[in-house]
Design a protein that fits this description.
CATH topology of the largest domain: Rossmann fold
CATH architecture of the largest domain: 3-Layer(aba) Sandwich
Structural class: alpha/beta
Oligomer: single chain
Distance between the termini: 63 Å
Number of domains: 3
CATH class of the largest domain: Alpha Beta
Helix content: 25-40%
Strand content: 25-35%
Largest sheet: 9 strands, mixed
Number of strands: 26
Radius of gyration: 24 Å
């Protein structure tokens, strides 16, 4: 073991503690006009830990976070870990019943939230059995911090194999599942990813992707903190002019986004007084990273041509902490490829029997490494299907070329990817089936120029004319997050089925593709 490895942080709390000891006055987080240095970030995290102890949170209990992008999200995250609790980030776009499911399933005993969600939090507190307390971030900030709580004793520190975070990801059943990630899982992923893009303390990241998502949490929060770098947090990348001003003002060097953002930037027309040459001179960014969804080749080529900076497409999944592969910073970047596996991460392609396949052969992508989760919480049957002999079966169909680059071909699982957020049709279908006027329902994913994909619904009514498409969409809104609502509902007299009565979604997908092609004046595939 090298001295560097021996001195490496053993858990996520060590990361923040060492950073504030080494460079307490260095800026860690920028949010609007507020700048927070490493010493204050650690101090506020300790304040959260103190509040949790005062509320009665015991070691190993799960504490949920329901917050927008803000410094409070980061201090809540690390404060929970300081108290040796498990972090359960919640998608703040979820509706009440979706949040209740996660609180119940995770058995969370506490919730940290803000005034924006206070009413919902009060309702949830009354609806859930395990939830013992709700703390508002603003209240925590006003609490005194006892000196003895400021420095977390090293003897009580978490080990690398201790659970750190429950990150929820939907499964083929349509119900979210908690991927159990350890301190070691997340730290290994951060170190490997940082090595690939050569992160240094001089870097400044921009974070407008939601911190509850695994991609943003690892790449935009943990990675900068491990390096002693800076993160500029925004609630939204819109308007684009504000985003560009923020990049120039804070000299952002690493831009992290999803394909739709790169498409917008590629197509944005800048004022005449900012010609491409001047635009590139004013641009402090040294590299851009794309993840969470497939990056169209046209967007990749157009973005790199316009901004003359490397755009690195990667691939990951929540169960792998999440990064699995990345196109190299030094070396060929292959359009349409998700790059090479990270250091310490192994990949293979297997057929339906589990046999390993050779180069250029298509099969299911499997991943093995220190970044792979322990398993899903309370889901033994799912664990048996997802984890085999230490390999994580991703459910994605792929091939590996002769240079070792991975190309994703499609998804084995029935999933719709809306701007990097996973939407599972069965979850929507189950809500549709609860409507008394709906007999049958099916949901598929259809291409969308702005979101990558969106759900599209098909229903058969019990009584003709009893509902309109608009009525059904209005019905869904209180039950599902906005991005899960189908863009279009098609009402039919019947749905295609096989001999056993199973709805054939493949036919619906083919019909939808043919309709899109006809609408755009393109020849049908079967002609």
């Amino acid at each position: 073991m090298t001295s560097q490895q021996h001195n490496a942080p053993g858990n996520l709390v060590d990361v923040l503690r060492r950073a504030q000891e080494k460079h307490p006055d260095r800026t860690a987080v920028v949010f609007g006009s507020k700048e927070i240095n490493y010493a204050d970030l650690f101090k506020e995290s300790c304040r959260v830990a103190s509040a949790l102890r005062a509320a009665g949170a015991k070691q190993g209990e799960k504490i949920a976070i329901l917050l927008d992008n803000s410094p409070e999200f980061i201090t809540a995250y690390f404060g929970i870990l300081l108290n040796r609790n498990i972090v359960v980030p919640i998608n703040h776009m979820f509706k009440r019943e979706e949040i209740k499911y996660i609180l119940d399933d995770s058995e969370a005993t506490g919730l940290i939230t803000s005034a924006a969600y206070a009413c919902m939090a009060d309702e949830l507190s009354a609806m859930t059995d395990k939830l013992a307390f709700v703390l508002q971030a603003s209240w925590i900030r006003d609490q005194p911090l006892e000196k003895e709580n400021f420095h977390h004793p090293q003897k009580d520190a978490s080990g690398p194999n201790e659970l750190a975070v429950f990150l929820y990801t939907s499964g083929t059943t349509g119900h979210p599942k908690a991927a159990m990630l350890t301190h070691g899982n997340l730290l290994s992923n951060v170190r490997s990813s940082s090595q690939c893009i050569r992160v240094s303390p001089k870097d400044t990241f921009i974070c407008f992707l939601p911190l509850f998502h695994s991609f943003a949490a690892t790449v935009c929060m943990l990675m900068p903190l491990v390096a002693g770098a800076k993160t500029v947090i925004m609630k939204s990348p819109r308007p684009i002019k504000k985003l560009l001003r923020t990049i120039r003002k804070h000299r952002v060097t690493i831009f992290v986004g999803i394909p739709s953002i790169y498409g917008i930037l590629k197509d944005t027309k800048f004022p005449r007084f900012l010609p491409p040459v001047l635009l590139r001179l004013l641009n402090p960014i040294r590299l851009a990273i794309s993840g969470a969804a497939a990056l169209p080749v046209e967007v990749f080529l157009g973005f790199e041509k316009k901004f003359r900076m490397p755009l690195l497409e990667g691939y990951g999944l929540t169960e792998a902490s999440p990064v699995v592969s990345l196109n190299p910073l030094r070396g060929p970047r292959k359009p349409g490829s998700i790059g090479l596996p990270l250091p310490d991460v192994r990949v293979k392609i297997v057929n339906d029997r589990g046999d390993a396949l050779g180069p250029e052969q298509e099969g299911e992508l499997c991943v093995k490494g220190p970044n792979v989760m322990l398993g899903y919480y309370k889901k033994e049957e799912d664990n048996g299907q997802a984890l085999k002999d230490g390999w994580l079966l991703t459910g994605d169909m792929a091939r590996i070329d002769r240079d070792g680059y991975i190309v994703i071909m499609g998804r084995k699982k029935d999933m719709v990817n809306v701007r990097g957020l996973n939407v599972y049709p069965r979850e929507i279908e189950e809500v549709l089936y609860r409507h008394p006027a709906i007999r049958e329902a099916a949901v598929i994913g259809v291409p969308d120029p702005h979101k990558g994909e969106v759900p599209k619904g098909y229903v058969v009514l019990k009584k003709e004319g009893s509902l309109t498409s608009h009525d059904i969409i209005v019905y869904l809104r209180p039950h599902l997050a906005d991005y899960k609502i189908p863009r279009k509902i098609e009402i039919r007299n019947e749905l295609p089925k096989n001999s056993s009565g199973k709805i054939l979604k493949r036919i619906l997908i083919e019909e939808s593709s043919s309709q899109d092609a006809s609408a755009n004046g393109l020849p049908r595939k079967d002609r």
